[in-house]
Amino acid sequence: MRIALEAAQAAADNGETPVGAVVVDPATGEVIATGANQPIGTHDPTAHAEIVALRAAALKRGNYRLTGLTLVVTLEPCAMCAGAISHARIGRLVFGAEDAKGGAVVNGPLFFEQPTCHWRPEVTGGVLAEECASLLKGFFRARRKSGGGM
Q: Is 16 part of the annotated catalytic residue set?
């Protein structure tokens, strides 16, 4: 999660919502790929941290199926990212802060619990949740003070 938090901070430093993700091979501890939110800078609405990390991991592995790998992300994934996690066959999802408005794992549509979901990773939430949430809250507090919008 510390690596994901570093990626989230990098996103914030670039004016992006501070969310970071990392794909890890739990068998070896190897970090396969990292990702940081970048939809603003890339003009790509799908460039969430999870998607960026999954794409990089798939390229590195030479396979879109990432079975057995763990995705660690600082914020509960949205429905789009949950769908990508399912399609990639990620073995385990670990996230930090819950997202009551946009989350789709333990909030909102509960994506992995839907009968149409064809792959369900093991899910662990709340890892370093306060630190992950604090980074997000501080980022948005600063934006409101500066009058900056998204």
A: no
Three-class SS state of 142: helix
Q: What is the pTM of this model?
A: 0.94
When pLDDT is cut at 50, 70 and 90, the band that residue 143 belongs to is confident
Neighbouring residues of 148: CB distance < 8 A, sequence distance ≥ 6: none
Q: What share of the chain in percent tops pLDDT 90?
A: 94
Could you give the C-alpha distances from 91 to 80, 123, 137, in angstroms and in order? 17, 9, 30
Burial class of residue 83, CB neighbours in 10 A (0-12, 13-18, 19+): middle
Give the C-alpha separation, 118 to 74, whole Å.
24
Catalytic residue among 16, 30, 50, 122: 50
